[in-house]
Amino acid sequence: MKNQLELCNLCHRNCGVDRHAKQTGFCGMTDELRIARAALHFWEEPCISGTNGSGAVFFSGCSLRCIYCQNHEIANGNRGIAVSDERLSDIFLELQEQGAHNINLVTPGHYIPQIKEALLRAKEFGLSVPIVYNTGSYENPEALKTLEGLVDIYLPDFKYMDSKLAQAYSKAPDYPAVAQAAIAEMVRQTGPCRFEAEPGESLMTRGTMVRHLVLPGALDNSKQVLEYLYRTYGNRIYISLMNQYTPLKRIEAYPQLNRKVTEEEFEEVFSYLCDLGIENGYVQEGETAEESFIPSFDGEGVIAK
């Protein structure tokens, strides 16, 4: 863990900063583990949230910081409470005691060494629910390999096949290639998706489910993402097509993003998904582009009671 943080290359930014010396790279975080919220979360895909909720742990900082990010309050590192590896381990166990179907690590990539230690400790003390790794996919596959055997479900985004959009919205023109390599490592680790039947529901217990958020005016990008995923993985993965894009006041300088995705736009992408023959997955329906889907990053569940 020490070497990884002394010359940090945990994500693809490869900043090379000494986080132990309190230097910060693109993610904005030192070696101090910071969490903004740890609570039951009910707004993931049905096979992740179930009826009891997913035990979501929201980590501060991010290696992408997309300009339209709904979680921008924590992505820029302005929210969050410092905790020890031991406290993180206890948080996992507390969420399991609350009935969480899984532990959902949200934007965890820049904390992989600390998370690994916390997971190993928690498992010694009885952590048994699946571990979900929820990421924007700007990941270093070598760092992901250190989690093999600890992560049960990968829940990555695949945001762009268009490098120009990746540069404009996430300052990552190489995102398509980086995400492809990262997702390939995730699928290698988990293999085909598996589900377990519970009364009235089916919960995912292993596998990779790739999310794609449709952006306004970027339908060709969405179609390219869907085609790549299906041609590459077929039914080995699940695909989640999302229409919850929420225009925020902070992006008024980007008029192309300053509106919701229209019904016609989303229907066009959905029809393309069907034409490809994709069957394994989820599609958001109805009015989901509401800020109510953005949780309060108020430190809930972070400090021991």
From TrEMBL:
[4Fe-4S] cluster binds at residues 62, 66, 69. GO terms for molecular function: catalytic activity; iron-sulfur cluster binding; metal ion binding. It holds the Pfam family Radical_SAM. It comes from the Bacteria. Residues 58-173 form the Radical SAM core domain. InterPro entries: Aldolase_TIM (IPR013785), MJ0674-like (IPR040085), Pyrv-formate_lyase-activ_prd (IPR016431), rSAM (IPR007197), rSAM_sf (IPR058240). Binds 1 [4Fe-4S] cluster. The cluster is coordinated with 3 cysteines and an exchangeable S-adenosyl-L-methionine. Keywords: Iron, Iron-sulfur, Metal-binding, S-adenosyl-L-methionine. Its cofactor is [4Fe-4S] cluster. The keyword Transmembrane helix does not apply. Signal peptide: none annotated. This is Radical SAM protein. It comes from Agathobacter ruminis.
